[in-house]
Amino acid sequence: MNRINSAAWGRRSALAALAVLAGLAPAQAQRATKTTKASTEKAVATNRVDQADSLALRKIFDEALLRGQSYENLRYLTGTIGGRLAGSPQAQQAVEWGKLTMEKAGFERVYLQEVMVPHWVRGPRERGEIVGNKDKSIKVAVCALGGSVGTDGKLKAGVVEVKSFDELRSLPDAAVKGKFVFFNRPFDDALIEPGMAYGRAGDQRRSGAIEAAKRGAVGALVRSLTSARDDNPHTGMMAYDPAVPKVPGAALSTLAAERLSLLLKASPDLQFELEMACKTLPDEKSFNVVGEIKGSKLPNEIITVGGHLDSWDLSEGAHDDGTGVVQSMEALRLLRATGFKPERTVRAVLFMNEENGNRGGIEYARLAAANNENHLAAIESDGGGFTPRGFNVEAEPAVVAKLAKWGPLLRPYHASSITVGHGGTDIGPLKEAVKPKALIGYDCDSQRYFDIHHTAADTFDKVNRRELELGGASMASLIYLLSKYGL
After folding, report:
1. Percentage of the chain lying above the pLDDT 90 cut
2. Which residues form the Peptidase M28 domain (predicted)?
């Protein structure tokens, strides 16, 4: 018997012995061994893939932390350009800056998408006073809500306080007509996620002026949407109903709201005096800014990542949404800098007019549909530039499950939480227009976000460099995995 045959006989003898011990026939034992071998080979191959991906992600994070450009880009956007309300000269400067920044980063194609946007202007600083007996007055911190009409001089009237629309509807006409309706529903601080509290309190800001006007009120005063107790009033978009008279809408700081509520209890007949010169001008031409890296294998499958370039006018718009803008551009730069050639086309989109109309998101989706584009997924960063936690996903359960399997790769960077949740306002219109498999919202620690959201306090100094760069790297890492494996 030659050496090879002896080895073969040895293997057969071993199988026979295994079969006796396991109660299997030799043929069954051989099949079991083949299955075990195949499983082992598959596990080894999977480990190799995981190791390669792990190393790739480590390179992305090294590049971000050691040579990241998000922070310095944000410094320029906020410090040199500042607040960027849609339709303003600063918004146009931001468009030009975004295009130039992406061209310098070496993206293969950079272009603009024209979009008409609303042009609301705040005018001179708003004034608000609580007026008591003998015209004694207390100045309070107040700001116009975005889109509000002005007061045409000083508007002085009594005040009725409510916590909800249902409470307002229950009041007799005489208690409301000719007065300001003061919506004083606070954040629910028992909720762990501040975003949920924001959502539950938000109707009073969005529709408070409509509900007040329906009852004959002269205006709406709204408690700022925040847990913070300070004198920073929070602006934000409000709406009007064409069938209902337009009355002014203004936000009170939380301290101002608490003071007004306390004084109303002591003196229900007190008055409030409001002066706002805001107005809406004709629509202005503006642009989304788009930068693209073409896919090497599946160029017709598109992954979009973006944030909104516009901001409210009270501040520099650092966390809302300067951080999302610079992180989206940085995500593509990180892929290029680490030598990764995406298999699918990746786009960074700086959307215009998220804050008071979402015209940029709507136009991007319209053009995607008109061009018959195939969007695999879209990612949005619009929750601030704080420490990464992971991603929220709008998708079918099987897609969410597939994304969740990548969690362990992101765990070393504290970005492994991949759960069902809201994708984002700018990318939302894509859902119906081109039906991507997933809308994905970058999720970071939001506990401090609503302290400064839509206020004068949303400034560059509130952004931590490492937190910001980690966020861009987290987004780049997810794009790497989406581009390589699809959904």
Report:
1. 89
2. 288-470
